[in-house]
């Protein structure tokens, strides 16, 4: 899970999608293509010193002359979206990470149902582009409160795959979902995703795909202390009862890259070896967890844990 170097881009265009959500188009100044990406991918954006956030790519993956991200101004958030809205304008320079995908499309036959609410539509837009290009059967269901809250309204209503789109307004009634889905991809608030998942309770787990923009609350401080063994540096660090693993690392001068601090984006994932980590992230698969741990929300259920740091 090594990471490529940042890519230097500038804001080629910025425009409003809704009263609270803007879209930024990012490109290289020399016009060279950006690294390819697959639908569902995100990039980490260095907004300001010490402010780095992950945002889904919503542009067409078939075109790498630019990326687009859509971000809601969260007044009560951690400050990333506020900084982006206030500081990053047309012609601003930015550093972004290479695309990473934790929410990828499958290539199996059958109907792909994309269900998103509000800004949760952003990764599904890229998915719809890809499914349309491949000729796969899909339906995109956009759930918003009212017409002015609909992201990319002209694309959804008049674009090349508009006949695969259903817009559902919460002000007008209940959400209706197709029953013949082969795979379901869902993104939005937790309560919304739980309701959609309940509708598809008979669907095999491997056919349900979701992406969180924020994680459910977790407790990462354990009732007992434990020791961290850092295999690369040979250091040993004590984690006190009730202390977060990542805080113990930082207090002892170990630099830890984090973006979301909620176990969603995968920026703080490192390898682990001996011990029993307590995984509370939402970015790793069960297979990934056999070798990796997300530092920002992990705990430990053994006396010691070896990290590849």
TrEMBL record:
Residues annotated as domain FAD-binding FR-type: 4-106
Would the keyword Metal-binding be found if you checked this record's keyword annotation? yes
Pinpoint the 2Fe-2S ferredoxin-type domain residues.
Answer: 226-309
Q: Native species of this protein?
A: Pseudomonas helleri
Offer an example of a GO molecular function term for this protein.
oxidoreductase activity
Q: Supply the alphabetized keyword list.
A: 2Fe-2S, Flavoprotein, Iron, Iron-sulfur, Metal-binding, Oxidoreductase
Kindly give the PANTHER family that the UniProt entry links to this protein: CARNITINE MONOOXYGENASE REDUCTASE SUBUNIT (PTHR47354:SF1), NADH OXIDOREDUCTASE HCR (PTHR47354)
Q: Which domain of life is it from?
A: Bacteria
Tell me the organism's taxonomic lineage: Bacteria, Pseudomonadati, Pseudomonadota, Gammaproteobacteria, Pseudomonadales
- What is the name of this protein? 2Fe-2S iron-sulfur cluster binding domain-containing protein
What PROSITE patterns does UniProt report for this protein, alphabetically? 2FE2S_FER_1, 2FE2S_FER_2, FAD_FR
Q: Which InterPro entries match?
A: 2Fe-2S_ferredoxin-like_sf, 2Fe-2S_ferredoxin-type, 2Fe2S_fd_BS, Beta-grasp_dom_sf, FAD-bd_FR_type, FNR_nucleotide-bd, MRET, Riboflavin_synthase-like_b-brl
């Amino acid at each position: 899970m090594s990471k490529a170097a940042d890519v230097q881009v500038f804001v080629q265009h910025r425009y409003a999608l809704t009263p609270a959500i803007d879209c930024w188009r990012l490109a290289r100044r020399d016009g060279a293509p950006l690294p390819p990406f697959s639908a569902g991918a995100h990039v980490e954006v260095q907004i300001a010193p010490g402010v780095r956030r992950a945002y889904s790519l919503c542009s067409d993956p078939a075109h790498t002359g630019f990326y687009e991200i859509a971000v809601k101004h969260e007044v009560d958030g951690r400050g990333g979206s506020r900084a982006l809205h206030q500081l990053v304008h047309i012609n601003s320079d930015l550093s972004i990470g290479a695309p990473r995908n934790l929410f990828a499309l499958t290539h199996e036959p059958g109907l792909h149902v994309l269900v998103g609410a509000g800004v949760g539509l952003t990764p599904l837009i890229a998915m719809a582009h890809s499914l349309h290009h491949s000729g796969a059967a899909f339906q995109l269901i956009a759930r918003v409160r009212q017409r002015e809250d609909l992201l990319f309204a002209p694309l959804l209503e008049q674009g090349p795959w508009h006949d695969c789109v259903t817009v559902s307004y919460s002000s007008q009634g209940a959400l209706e979902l197709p029953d013949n889905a082969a795979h379901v991809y869902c993104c939005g608030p937790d309560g919304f995703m739980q309701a959609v998942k309940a509708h598809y309770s008979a669907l095999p787990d491997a056919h349900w795909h979701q992406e969180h923009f924020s994680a459910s609350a977790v407790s990462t401080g354990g009732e007992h202390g434990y020791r961290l063994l850092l295999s690369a540096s040979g250091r040993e660090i004590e984690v006190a009862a009730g202390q977060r693993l990542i805080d113990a690392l930082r207090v002892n001068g170990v630099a830890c890259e984090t973006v979301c601090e909620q176990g969603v984006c995968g920026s703080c994932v490192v390898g682990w070896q001996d011990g029993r980590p307590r995984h509370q992230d939402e970015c790793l698969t069960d297979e990934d967890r056999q070798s990796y741990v997300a530092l920002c929300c992990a705990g430990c259920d053994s006396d010691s844990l070896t990290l590849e740091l």
